[in-house]
Amino acid sequence: MASIYWYYLLGIIGLGITAFTVYKKRDIKLSTFLVFFLFSLCVTWIGEFVVLGLFNSYAYKTGIYTNPWAQNILGHLILNSTFYPGTALLVAACSLGYGWIFLITVLYLLLEYLFLKLGIYEHHWWKYYMTALAIFIYQIISIFWFKKISNIKYGFYRISTFYFVGFVVLHFPIPVILLLGKQYYNVNWVQDMYLSSTMFIFTYQLVETLLLVLFVCAFEKWYWSIVPFITAFVGQFILVKLNILVFQDGWNLFYTMLVYFTSIALFILIEKYSLIPEKQ
């Protein structure tokens, strides 16, 4: 079986786990599930940006691209957007105990071993115990955070949660566009274009999301929500003028801003109708 199908299989299993959890816990609002799924997804993204993107700890071998970092990005997008948040949602929503968390951690290790033996994944300096520790802590954090947002109040936990959600909504289309060969970021932070572009835009949007959350979540007046659209356009326009944002294959600034504005509008809708504290 081709390498990519193993990744697709885990992605489908992750989405199946998510659907199962939502069905079993029908008393919980769908919006709460959505927000937590995106939150836990973002936790894995940031973690992998550090251990994979910055420290090259392991490598995904999807078999789709010849460039190793394009393969890493694709593998990352599939697994960290489906399987990881899917299991986190199951553990958190069902309040599974340490025994189940231990079993899920063992399952991750077995899957890692299988992928290594199949040659579709490789360790550089990464070790099995690091995976076990990371997954175990990830599940514990998931349970803690899900309890917090299940009885949410305005303040730190709500704004922090939406920071993670905002980053995912804002960032998700960018690596997809990069992999499709439509645009990249010419910063030359490292030799590889895919890695350099990812390092730049990931860092850029971590900061940009602070502004997004500030004007959408912290400020109450509706007109403050217009500011993120303005800052997004100004920021991307400047990047074009500085020859940092480079378009290819008929892509242009209009398409990029269409994607950007759609992402911002989607985040505004999610924030408006999710995690609404109950009136006392």
Automatic annotation (TrEMBL):
User: Which residue spans traverse the membrane?
Assistant: 6-23, 30-55, 89-116, 128-146, 161-181, 193-216, 222-240, 252-270
Membrane recorded as keyword: yes
Q: Which UniProt keywords apply?
A: Membrane, Transmembrane, Transmembrane helix
Q: What's the protein here called?
A: Histidine kinase N-terminal 7TM region domain-containing protein
Q: Which organism encodes this protein?
A: Desulfosporosinus nitroreducens
The lineage is:
Bacteria, Bacillati, Bacillota, Clostridia, Eubacteriales
